[in-house]
Design a protein that fits this description.
Elements: H1 9-17, H2 26-36, H3 43-56, H4 59-88, H5 102-110, E1 115-122, E2 125-130, E3 133-140, H6 143-157, E4 177-179, E5 182-188, E6 193-194, H7 200-216, H8 232-246, H9 257-273, H10 276-289, E7 292-293, E8 302-304, E9 309-311, E10 318-319, H11 323-333, H12 350-357, H13 359-362, H14 369-379, H15 383-395, H16 397-417
Antiparallel strand pairs: 1-2, 2-3, 3-5, 4-5, 6-8, 7-10, 8-9
Helix pairs in contact: 2-4, 3-4, 4-5, 7-11, 8-9, 8-14, 14-15
């Protein structure tokens, strides 16, 4: 761990000289010193202060200054001990995989953050209340991935308009620390609420935010994502195969079996007709042009407040066709559109229009990637929630089936005329 960055001897002297002492009262002098050094005080600075006070005031002042400083340190240790007790009582755990230990919090203390409380959101995401304000710590297995996100954040921070949340250095000026196989970085908590896709204004706001993100990242001169080809067909094929293999193992009620079988047939029909050469051409071109997608445009990754809307969580950024963000976004909002594309047809966003007008991309809008994703996640985590999701999907089945048939007709019509 890097050493803490102090304010320096010259800075100490200059700060001391500009103080306007109202009187020579001892308590007044001590309060002024503590107020100035509240956030940056280190052992070296305490020593320097003692030397300076020795010239000005008797030994009594020195002792009082040291007592006050030690009291502040004790309060910090008391907060840390409270967190440790919570760990012992397993109050900070959401599950067996989310265990934290004392050494982890000692590492955090060494970064200069003064912890008041802690809440584990995920195994690699921790929310902290600190003296420096609310923070989120996020752990990355891959150091290069973290470096890419740090670089992307610094680039976007230089733009005129904020479009995304970004990391910040710790008080020690370090950008991350390594602990238990993860590289941990810090960001301030973004104030705001997620978008509500049931509201038309929020759906349109999300589309504009995606377009803004694409525009701001369209001329990056440094690589912020892995230089590898993004293959949508291969990704969907793997997800479909996992779904198919899990059908006989899924703990679902018998009434939902016909629904799952129908969705499986839809996925199989589309995978057999995907224009792989066309997609590969788009993907190679996107990699060469460094076209960056967010990759996870779920409603909770848009945070809106009265001043701005920002994107968060860039774990799935990749060099890929911009259309892929719009394909995923449409897939996520379609249940709220009753599986009718009329609302988004006239929006003047090039990538979105390409998805709606190009027949090879239009075909992909009917692929049930959302159904496969939720099925696979809930099957291994929560049986009751899986059956609740299937009940919801069955309510939307007729609307979705109607859209699938519409896509089928468009495909066969194109084949006939060609």
């Amino acid at each position: 761990m890097a050493e803490k960055t102090g304010i320096g001897k010259q800075s100490l002297k200059s700060k001391w000289r500009v103080i306007k002492w109202p009187n020579h009262n001892t308590a007044c002098r001590i309060c002024k010193v503590i107020q100035i050094w509240e956030d940056t005080i280190t052992n070296q600075e305490i020593a320097a202060a003692v030397v300076m006070l020795f010239i000005i005031q008797p030994l009594k002042v020195i002792i009082q200054l040291i007592q006050i400083t030690m009291l502040r340190k004790c309060m910090r240790k008391r907060n840390l001990k409270a967190i440790m007790r919570s760990l012992d009582n397993k109050e900070l755990e959401r599950g067996d995989s989310n265990q934290l230990d004392r050494l982890f919090f000692q590492y955090i203390q060494e970064t200069g953050l003064i912890i008041d409380s802690c809440h584990v959101l995920k195994k690699n995401v921790v929310k902290l209340q600190t003296e420096q304000g609310p923070k989120v710590l996020k752990g990355f297995k891959n150091k290069e991935k973290l470096h890419g996100q740090l670089l992307l954040g610094s680039i976007l921070d230089d733009r005129n308009e904020k479009v995304a949340a970004s990391f910040e250095p710790f008080p020690t000026k370090e950008w991350f620390f390594h602990y238990d196989g993860l590289y941990w970085a810090c960001m301030p908590v973004e104030e705001g609420t997620p978008l509500d896709f049931s509201k038309r204004a929020d759906r349109l706001l999300g589309l504009r935010q995606i377009a803004k993100f694409h525009k701001e990242t369209g001329n990056l001169t440094k690589d912020v994502a892995p230089l590898k080809l993004f293959q949508l067909n291969e990704k969907w094929l793997r997800r479909y195969n996992r779904f198919q293999l899990s059908l006989n193992q899924a703990p679902i009620q018998k009434e939902f079996v016909p629904l799952a079988s129908s969705v499986q047939r839809w996925g199989e029909w589309i995978l057999e007709r995907i224009n792989r050469k066309f997609l590969q051409h788009l993907e190679v071109e996107a990699l060469n042009n460094r076209s960056l997608i967010h990759g996870d445009v779920a409603h909770h990754n848009f945070l809106r407040n009265k001043f701005e809307t920002v994107l968060i969580d860039f774990d799935l950024i990749a060099y890929a066709p911009l259309e892929y963000d719009y394909l995923q976004y449409i897939n996520r909002i379609m249940p709220f559109l009753k599986w009718d594309l009329q609302e988004v047809r006239d929006i003047p966003i090039p990538g979105l229009k390409h998805c709606l007008q190009n027949p090879d991309l239009y075909l992909l809008l009917a692929f049930p990637t959302d159904f496969f994703r939720e099925w696979l996640f809930l099957m291994r985590t929560n049986e009751q929630k899986l059956n609740n999701y299937l009940a919801y999907a069955r309510q939307k089945f007729q609307e979705r089936e109607r859209f699938f048939i519409q896509v089928q007709k468009a495909y066969y019509k194109r084949i006939t005329y060609n």
